[in-house]
Amino acid sequence: MMMKKKVIVAMSGGVDSSTTAALLKEQGYDVSGITMQLWDYAEEESGCCSLSDVLDARQAANQIGIKHTVVDYKEDFQKYVVKDFIDKYYCGQTPNPCIMCNEHMKFNFLLNKSLEMGADFLATGHYAKISKNSSGTYFLEKGKDKFKDQSYFLFTLSQKELSRLMFPLGEFNKSQVREISEGFELTVASKKDSQDVCFIAKDYRGFIEKNLPGTTMKKGYIKSLDGNVLGSHSGIHNFTIGQRKKLGIESMKAMYVVSINFQNNDVLVGNKEDLYSKVLFANNLNWTVDPKDLVEKKIEAKIRYRSPESLASIRFVNGRLHVLFDEAQRSITPGQAIVFYRDDKVLGGGWIDEVCREN
After folding, report:
1. In CATH, which superfamily holds the domain spanning 274-356?
2. Would you state the pLDDT for residue 1?
């Protein structure tokens, strides 16, 4: 008799991961749930990752009839996700903690923990797909629900990780998932989706200032692109590329943050047209295909989660990836990810570290 495949489901307490667990059990897998405790619940700051989410995950597991385990990764979360978030803002970049959490917490620590517990696979409630070609190469693909597709947040996945992961919701759209959840009579069926940064319930600026003890925020100037001083600021962590409000300057026309300079602490502002650029450099790359086969060819690139893909060509310059878009992109932001696609397949991606305003 063939043994059932053992699948451990990362349960966050939301409708997606709970439905994932219920679906896999219904399909005949040996399912159990696991939830990461990532935050000190006594702390004032807390969005999701809250105690109520852990309790919701446990309740869903009880309703489904599966074993549920809570693992403590608070220190690792601080080290790999929260610290990166704070450091990037302090240096004038805009971080993406969801990608960092996926890379380190879910698909490193939690995946390895699941395998140690005897699992064949770790499953999550991500809206994405995994495929394998005839030569045995795994590919990450977009989920069916194009509005909820989360492949952008998963570009760091390696072949080893893809071979041990399951994304059952990739074949569904969100409304179908809620219907399925209701069919299983899960109490989380109508629970709202989490929004924004999971570990910040209020303003991120105050969070950064609170969590940089002993560090003095460096004051600086807000300048026009031609170097005229328009005002001053109390720290570059207060700004992000494309920002229009709360600039602290007076102007007869709308002004936008175009560039942030960590070296001299300047924030440069300009018109809406000044936000557009065709060229960026990226580092810390991860590829599913050989990038040499993509050089100087047209591929689709995505510079933020909600932006559409745009045609671009790539080449390598002094060890960094040079990306040239066919059409100028608005508000390319250092600290964010750039992810490359061909049709629905993820080819690879990396982290934006420089934007060239001279095209």
Report:
1. Translation factors (2.40.30.10)
2. 46
**What is the pLDDT, as a whole number, of residue 216?**
66
197-209 residue pLDDT tens:
777 867 888 888 8
pTM of the model: 0.93
Is 198 among the catalytic positions? yes
Q: Is 48 a catalytic residue?
A: no
SS (H, E, C) the chain: CCCCCEEEEECCCCHHHHHHHHHHHHCCCEEEEEEEECCCCCCCCCCCCCHHHHHHHHHHHHHHCCEEEEEECHHHHHHHHHHHHHHHHHCCCCCCHHHHHHHHHHHHHHHHHHHHCCCCEEECCCCEEEEECCCCCEEEEECCCCCCCCHHHHCCCCHHHHCCEECHHHHCCHHHHHHHHHHCCCCCCCCCCCCCCCCCCCCHHHHHHHCCCCCCCCCEEEEECCCCEEEEECCHHHCCCCCCCCCCCCCCCCCEEEEEECCCCEEEEECHHHHEEEEEEEEEEEECCCHHHCECCCEEEECCCCCCCEEEEEEEECCEEEEEEEEEEECCCCCCEEEEEECCEEEEEEEEEEEECCC
> 216-270 belongs to which CATH class?
mainly beta
Question: Which of these is catalytic: 48, 49, 101, 356?
Answer: 101
Active-site entry in 48, 91, 198, 356: 198
What is 6-183's CATH number? Answer: 3.40.50.620
Domains of the chain: which residue ranges? 6-183, 216-270, 274-356
